Here is the input.
Amino acid sequence: MMPLLEVRDLEAGYGPIRALDGVSLDVAEGELVAIIGANGAGKTTLLMAISGVVPVRAGVIRFADRPLAGLAPHEIMRLGIGHAPEGRRIFPRLTVRENLELGGFTQTDRRRLEQDIAEACGLFPVLGDRLGQMGGTLSGGEQQMLAIGRALVGRPRLLLLDEPSLGLAPLIVAKVFEVIAALSARGIAVVLVEQNARAALKLAARGYVLETGRITLTGTGPELAADRRVRDAYLGEG
Amino acid sequence: MMGRNWQKTDATGAMPVRALVAAFLRERWDLVALVLLALAPLVIPALGGALGGQVTTLFIYCILALGLNVMVGYTGLVHLGIAAFFGIGAYLCAILTVPMYPFQMRFVTAALVSVLATAGVGLALGAPTLRLRGDYLAIVTLGFGEVVKVTLRNLEQITGGMKGLNPVPPPGAGLVVGGLDLGRAFAVDPRWFYYLTLLALAGVVVAMRRLENSRLGRAWVAVREDELAAAAMGISATRVKLSAFAMSSAVAALAGCLYAASLSTTADPNAYDFNRSIMVLCAVILGGLGSIPGTLLGVALLVGFDTVLAPWADSWIQQMEVNPSGSSLLSFSGWRLAIFGLALVLVMRYRPEGLIPSRRMAAELHKAHP
Here is the structure.
C-alpha cells in the first residue's frame, strides 16, 4: 500500500544553514508517527517543509500520491494537511469561534463548517465554553487545544503537531495526548513532533529519531522506547 | 459583530429611560447619525451655502479614510500614499467627463470605470511590494504618492499640469427629471452634493461592515495577526494582501471621483500630496485602527477642524477686529498645525488605541500580562 505521506531525501534550510540533510520517512493512512530529537535537530523545519512554509531544496515530498513541490502553503493545506505549528500560533485578538472559523477557511459550505466547529468543541469541551472569548485570554493548555481544534476544522487527513506539550502542566499534557490518541483512533494520520519523547513514543505506532538534520534511528514506538541510545539521550535514564 | 444588547434590557423594562437612550445610541449610532445628517440641511440653512460644501468635503474624506482603513486597519499594511489613489480616481473621473476629451461619460459610468481602473493600479503597486512590510512598505507607498503627484504635474498635455482638469460636469449634467435639470441643480445648490456624498458614505459604511464579517475580512485580520498561521489555515497571504490593496485603492478612487465632481475641477496636483495622505492616516489612527466609527470620528475631528472650524474661527477673529495688522500669530490658522499636533500627542499618550477602538486593538494595547 502507498503511504499517505512519503518524504524522500529531503533537504531544507535557512540561508547557509542546512537544517534537514536527506530525511526520508513514511506515514501510512491513519498512522501515528512520532518524531523525537533534541533542540535544533530539525523537527520543526521538517513539518514546515511538509506544509510548504520552508522551501524544499532537494528531495521529494508526496502526499496522497501527489508531489507537493512548488505548492504554496495554502494549497498544500487544501489537499488535507492540517498544521498546528510550534508555539500554537493561535490568533490572540480573535475570538475562539473566529479562530475555529479560520481553521475552516477553505470550507465554503456554512453548514459543514458549523458541524466541524461543533465537532472540535465536542473534542475539547473547554473551547465550546469559551467561543466568545479572545484567543489570547486562554490558558496555555486551552490555547494548545484551540490550535489543534483549529487544524481539525479543516478536516485534514494528515495532522502535523509541533510540540503540543510545550510549556504545559503535566496534567494538561496528559489530556492533550489523550485527544491525540483519540484523533488517531478516528483514522486521522498524525505526525507528532515532541521533546517529551516518553509520552510521544508511548502513543506512536512508529517513531523516528532526528539528529542534526538526519534520521538516525527508526522503529516501532515500543522498540524505540526500549532502545539503549534513545533511553540515554532522550528519556533521561542514562 | 455588534450585539443588540439594548433589546434585551428593553424587554426587562427595568432600565431607566436615560440609560436606555444611551444604550440605543451606542448600538445604533450609525442610524441616528444618518437620520440627523439627512435632516440637517432641512433645518440648518447654512448647509445651502459654503458650509454645505465643507461638510461634503468631510464626507468625501470619510470615504477616503474608510478605504485606507482596509489596508492599515484590517490588514496591518502601512500605507503613506493613499492620496495618490484619491488623485488617480479624481483625474480619471475628470478625463472621462470633461469637455476637452472625447469620452464625456455620465458621472456614474465614469466613476465606475475610475474605481475599477484605480483598483488595477492598486494591484500593480501591490504585486511587486507584497513581501515588504512595516517601514519598507511605508517608504514604497510614500514614494509612489510623490511619483503620482509629480507625474500629474508634468503630464501637462493630459492632466493640465498645475491648472488641473476642469470643468468637471456635475452628476446628471444634461439630465432632466420631471422638469428638473439635475446638472443645474447640482451646480447651484450644494445640498445636492451633500446628499450624494452622504449616500455614498452610507453605502461604503454598509459595505465595510459586511466585509468585516466576511471570509475576506477575517482573512485580512488573520494575515495581519500571523501570516504563517494564516497560511496553515489555507489562506493565501498574497491574494489576501492584493485584495486589500485593490479594495483600498478602489474606495479611495470613489472618494476622488466625488471630490472632482463636487469641486467641478481636479484642483492642482498638490491637492493629492503627502500631507493629504498623512492627514487621513492620522484620522484613522486617532479614531481607532480597524474601527469604522473610530475612523469616521477621526475624520470629523481632524478634517473637520481643518476645513470647517479653522476657517470659521479665522473669520470670527477677523470680525472681532482684534487683529488689524493681519499678524499670523493672532489668526487661528497660524496655530492650526500646533493645535493639531498637540491633540495627536495627547491622544497617543492617553488613548493609544484610538478614540473609538476596535475590539481587537483595545485588547492588544491594554492586555494584562499573558
Remarks:
- The beta strands of chain A are 5-14, 17-27, 32-36, 56-63, 66-67, 81-84, 158-162, 189-194, 206-211, 214-220.
- The longest strand of chain A covers residues 17-27.
- Residues 87-155 of chain A form one domain.
- Chain A touches chain B through 30 residues (CB under 8 Å).
